[in-house]
Amino acid sequence: MSFARDAATHAYYDARAGEYDEWYEGEGRFADRDRPGWSAEVEELVRVVDALPSGRTLDVACGTAFLTQHLQGFAVGLDQSPSMVALAQERLPDGLALTGDALALPFADRAFDRVLTAHFYGHLVPEERTAFLAEAARVASELIVIDSAPREDRPLEGWEQRILNDGSEHKVFKRFLTPETILEELGEAGGTGETLYEGRWFSAVRATLWTNAPSVD
Questions:
Q1: Domain assignments of the chain as residue spans, ordered by start
Q2: Would you state the CATH architecture of domain 7-208?
Q3: Residue of 45, 84, 173, 179 with fewest CB within 10 Å of its CB?
């Protein structure tokens, strides 16, 4: 089982690029969903990202750069989807968007002040989390994780069916995470951190990473 290097998952996200922001903005298939407080929480995530100190930030699995564009300082967005990267580059006129492997980051040790990842960590299976956290600790000393909070209508983890605007159906592995769960896992991987945001829909944490982090399996 895999996510980050799964060909079908890659195809799904590349096809979804043009409609990805509809999820954030409550448009398209998401227009009629009952999501009380959603828009306010999205705005809060933007404020969290905007308030981070200026620095060199790598956004892993940046998608369309919906959040990346609010970073202060030099931002690099990395995603496996060429379609996502093309959209991201438009939003990062003073930054850079690249295609690349999140589990083998194409950057030198300590090339960045921080790694940020939004709605990626919660998709990773254990061995992928181990690889990602080791790579994040190699290229930066700080990690920001933003992800989906637990919901009453969904199991904490499992395979979800996703339907695109063209009607095509896809399966994606997904976990829903509290800040405490994320911080516990990051602690097992050698990090110490704090909660940046805890809401009905989203969780966000910041952690200081150790080099040569041990396995989180």
A1: 7-208
A2: 3-Layer(aba) Sandwich (3.40)
A3: 173
